[in-house]
Amino acid sequence: MKTALITGGSRGLGRALALELARDGWNLVIDARDSTALAAVAEETGATAISGDVADPAHRAELVRAVSGGLDLLVNNASTLGPTPMPRIGALPVDDLAGTFATNVLAPLALIQGVLPGLRERRGAILNITSDAAVENYETWGGYGTSKAALEQLSNVLAAEEPDVAVWWADPGEMNTAMLRAAGEDADAAPPPAEAAAALRRLISDRRPSGRYRAADLAATR
Q1: 3-state class of 3 per DSSP?
Q2: Other Cβ atoms closer than 10 A to 160
Q3: How far is residue 176's CA from residue 37's CA, in Å, rounded to a whole number?
Q4: Domain that includes residue 37, residue range
């Protein structure tokens, strides 16, 4: 049985992807800060739930220990917008940007480093969830977008360095999530996370080459 570790698995895309992989028979380890919501997803999927903050080194160490028996897929999905309402880049406090990077860039890298030996051994895969904000110049999205751009380049280099591990960085597109709502966007007009999760499941099951993918493109090439 294949094992996946999904961060930010209590709601939104993380929950939807956990449901997709559970239906495919994956063994799951999921994390999130909201222990109550996380436990509900664990009950739905049979996953092992480990609540905590991915920016906390002790929590990351616990996650790495939980998959020490073997890991086939790491999904770095947990992320933060930073301060909300989101300020323009010229007014973004540097300390707040550092906090955004701690969750959106440094935590994924630390988890990758912790599980990479096992992924190499099993020829596993890494899926880093990114955003169109990494490549577009949306006003007030500068802090979040900069962190996702860093995650994309980190993924790009990792893919070149690790030929035996599939490394994907994927833009799920707009989704009806609490995060989009917190950003002040009309989340109700966006599609449900289940649509992006189904597209990403195809990416995983097909084991496509390392690279950047958009969920919309994956959904269009069934």
Answers
A1: strand
A2: 10
A3: 17
A4: 3-220
